[in-house]
Structure formats: structure tokens, C-alpha cells
């Protein structure tokens, strides 16, 4: 009897092991995904890596010992992912040939679609995995170059420069009116005297102070003192405006400007509804960057985590139109997966277990793959690039070359003229000598 009871116990344990194995086998989820670093990507040796695979691996480690997720269907792009998700393709056919409905997991899902009828038709619901906290603003490199910023600064000083010109005329006339009768440095003629006064006002404003024109009367010196105080203020305003133009990025604000953003994404929603930009939909991140390079939009917006992983390619200076990341805007961008509403109880238990280990499963996975974007606020070209790629420096160099050619040509012309005069003088001297020798005088 005891022997039979012992055998029965072993038989029950054997049956329990078989049932547990059966449960573990049926829990395997089937992933339909598209590649985007750092969320999920293939390494050089074909290994599937990234934040999402790491989340499920951590889930397997803390919540079960068997495989939780198989990467079943890899799609070439986000567009094909969304097209397949919203299509009427049935599970078990075409791209979904190896996927069953109650085991399907779609990721990474970054779409912010108003109409989510496709999720209902496929029996899916959204499950948040993690979120990104910023959007990277990407512009053409020439928009943060020193010559471009300097030209913007000079343009920004236009009102100050017009004010300086008007005040120069007023104070130039005032100093002439005060000095004309007592100071012989100023002409009594209105036009000549006012021009001399304007010359004095410009020289005084720039603190050069040649000393060639000096007020001598008391009224003239009072006028000069007032103008000098105004000049200091105006000079400070110009310096502050140029400094702000070179160091600031306010002109790169995307408010009411056209920006390319991946369509139907949380970035698109944030750009349009939070930051007030005119969002131009793009099929992919590559397409968004191409729109910037072709100058069809002001800037491109990308998930900051994605941008950090692609920053080397984005800022490749060998590209005919290099780009730069200039700022990170605050945003909340959700990265989800779509799971079946008919998950098995064991799969639900696994997800619930993963939620209990938030730090170990989710936070640790995100931290392991998170990089930070490096932003630039000014670009200074090398000497070669400065002349090879910048039109302003090419024009200046061309102007210098023309001036040198003109100067050399003028010198050559002067030398020829001088030689011609010397020949005439020599000829005249010879003629005079002949006349002297012949005794004609």
C-alpha cells in the first residue's frame, strides 16, 4: 500500500511537470515589430537587441524561466508596420502567417491615432512600456554658422543703426550751429558745415576721437557731452544685440514655422498642439531629415532618444547638407506595445509580475540603452570650409582679388606712363643738346 501511494505521488508530480511545461509553451508571445534604435534593432551578428527586448528578457528573469516573447515578424519600416496594422490582413496569412491572434504583440507603437478602430478589429489594446521626455530640433548646419548669425545680428541692429544715422545728422547740425561763427574748423556754408559736423559725430560715437574737429564754445561742448553719453548707450545696444544674435537660439523657435515630423506620432501631436508649429507629415525619420536638407521645411523634429542613437549619421559633415541638433524641447512621448485582449491567464500573470518589478524590468532596461543628445548653438567652419562652402567669404575673397588685380593694373599703367614720359623727356633733352651743339641758340 505504501509503495502504491509513493508511486502515485511520483505520477502526480510527473503530470504536474508536464502541465507546467504545457503552460510555459503556450505563453510565448509573437512579436510583430519594426526596427528603430534604441527601442529594437538587429545587431551586426543578427541578434535582436534594444530597450523592448531587454524589458521582456528582464520579465523572463524575474517572472518566469521560459521564453516570454518570440520576434516573429520583422517589418522593413514604420509605414509598413502601420499599413499592416490598419489593413484587413488576417492572422495566419501573408506577413502574419506565423502569428496567431491571441499571442500577437505589436511594437514599438508610437502612433497617436484618433481613430483606433483597427485595434478593436484586431482585438488589441495599448500597453505602455516606457516614455521619452524630449523632442530634438534638427536644422541645417548653416543656420547656426558664425557668418549667418553675424548677418542676423547686423540685421537685428537695423533700427539702432537708423537711429544712429538720424541722431548723427541732428547732432552734426547742432554742433555746426554752435561752432560755425567761432570755430574756423567749421565752414559757414550749411551743407559743408553739417557734413563736417556729421563726420565729427561719427568719429566721437565710435570713440576714435581723431582730434581734427574739436568744439571750442561752451554750447558746442555741452552738445558734444550729450552726444557722447548717447553714443555710449547706442554702442552698448549694438554690442548686446550682436552678442544675443550669436549666442542665442531664439530665432530657432518652431512656433508658427513649418517642421517635418513623422506622421500620426506623438511627436506630430506635440509639435502641432503643444508648441504651435505647422507640422508637415513625413513617412519616416529619414524622410523628415530630407525635407530639412531640401529646405522645404524650417526644421525636423525627432524623438530625443532616437536622435541620440542616430546623431552621428544626422551630423555627418560629408553630407552635402550637414545637419545639427540645436535644442531639446520638453515633451511626453509614449512608447507602447499592442497586446491581444484574449491573452492567456499565464501571460496576464507575467505582465502583472513585470509591473511589480518596475525598476528592475522597465527602468533598468531604459537606462541601459539611453543616450543623451549633444546640442550645438554655433558652428565655426575650418579655414578650408570657410572659403569652400560659404558664399560670403567667397565674395569677400573675390573682392580682395579684384582689388589686388586693379591695384597691380594701375601700377603697371603708371609705370608705362612714367616710361613714356621719361622717353619724351629724354628725347626733348637730346633735341636740346643737338640744338646747343649746332649753335642754333
UniProtKB/TrEMBL annotation:
Domain of life: Eukaryota
Location in or out of the cell: Membrane
Entry-linked Pfam families: Ion_trans_2
Membrane-spanning residues: 160-178, 190-210, 222-242, 392-413
Gene3D superfamilies: 1.10.287.70
Location of the Potassium channel domain: 164-247
Keywords, sorted A to Z: Ion channel, Ion transport, Membrane, Transmembrane, Transmembrane helix, Transport
Protein's membrane topology: Multi-pass membrane protein
UniProt xrefs under PANTHER family: POTASSIUM VOLTAGE-GATED CHANNEL PROTEIN SHAW (PTHR11537:SF252), VOLTAGE-GATED POTASSIUM CHANNEL (PTHR11537)
Protein name (Swiss-Prot/TrEMBL): Potassium voltage-gated channel subfamily B member 1
Amino acid at each position: 500500500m505504501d509503495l502504491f501511494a509513493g508511486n502515485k505521488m511520483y505520477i502526480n508530480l510527473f503530470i504536474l511537470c508536464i502541465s507546467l511545461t504545457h503552460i510555459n509553451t503556450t505563453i510565448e508571445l509573437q512579436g510583430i515589430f519594426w526596427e528603430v534604435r534604441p527601442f529594437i534593432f538587429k545587431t551586426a551578428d543578427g541578434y535582436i537587441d534594444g530597450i523592448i527586448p531587454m524589458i521582456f528578457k528582464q520579465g523572463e528573469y524575474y517572472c518566469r524561466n521560459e521564453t516570454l516573447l518570440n520576434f516573429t515578424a520583422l517589418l522593413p519600416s514604420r509605414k509598413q508596420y502601420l499599413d499592416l496594422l490598419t489593413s484587413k490582413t488576417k492572422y495566419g496569412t501573408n506577413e502574419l502567417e506565423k502569428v496567431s491572434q491571441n499571442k500577437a504583440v505589436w511594437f514599438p507603437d508610437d502612433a497617436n491615432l484618433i481613430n483606433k478602430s483597427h485595434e478593436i478589429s484586431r482585438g488589441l489594446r495599448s500597453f505602455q512600456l516606457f516614455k521619452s521626455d524630449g523632442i530634438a530640433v534638427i536644422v541645417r548646419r548653416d543656420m547656426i554658422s558664425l557668418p549667418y548669425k553675424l548677418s542676423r545680428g547686423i540685421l537685428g541692429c537695423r533700427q539702432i543703426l537708423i537711429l544712429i544715422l538720424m541722431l548723427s545728422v541732428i547732432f552734426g547740425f547742432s554742433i555746426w550751429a554752435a561752432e560755425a561763427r567761432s570755430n574756423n574748423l567749421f565752414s559757414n556754408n550749411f551743407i559743408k558745415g553739417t557734413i563736417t559736423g556729421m563726420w565729427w559725430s561719427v568719429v566721437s560715437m565710435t570713440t576714435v576721437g581723431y582730434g581734427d574737429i574739436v568744439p571750442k564754445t561752451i554750447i558746442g561742448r555741452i552738445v558734444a557731452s550729450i552726444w557722447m553719453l548717447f553714443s555710449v548707450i547706442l554702442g552698448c545696444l549694438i554690442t548686446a544685440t550682436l552678442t544675443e544674435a550669436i549666442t542665442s537660439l531664439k530665432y530657432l523657435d518652431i512656433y508658427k514655422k513649418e517642421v517635418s515630423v513623422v506622421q500620426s506620432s506623438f511627436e506630430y501631436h506635440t509639435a502641432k498642439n503643444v508648441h504651435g508649429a505647422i507640422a508637415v507629415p513625413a513617412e519616416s525619420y529619414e524622410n523628415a531629415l530630407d525635407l530639412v536638407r531640401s529646405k522645404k521645411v524650417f526644421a525636423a523634429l525627432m524623438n530625443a532618444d532616437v536622435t541620440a542613437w542616430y546623431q552621428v549619421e544626422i551630423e555627418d559633415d560629408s553630407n552635402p547638407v550637414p545637419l545639427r541638433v540645436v535644442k531639446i524641447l520638453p515633451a511626453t512621448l509614449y512608447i507602447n506595445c499592442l497586446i491581444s485582449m484574449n491573452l492567456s491567464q499565464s501571460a496576464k500573470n507575467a505582465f502583472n509580475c513585470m509591473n511589480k518589478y518596475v525598476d528592475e524590468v522597465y527602468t533598468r532596461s531604459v537606462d541601459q540603452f539611453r543616450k543623451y543628445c549633444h546640442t550645438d548653438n554655433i558652428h565655426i567652419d575650418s579655414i578650408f570650409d570657410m572659403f569652400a562652402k560659404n558664399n560670403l567669404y567667397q565674395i569677400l575673397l573675390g573682392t580682395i582679388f579684384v582689388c589686388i588685380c586693379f591695384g597691380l593694373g594701375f601700377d603697371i599703367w603708371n609705370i608705362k606712363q612714367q616710361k613714356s614720359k621719361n622717353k619724351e623727356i629724354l628725347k626733348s633733352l637730346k633735341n636740346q643738346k643737338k640744338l646747343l651743339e649746332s649753335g642754333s641758340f
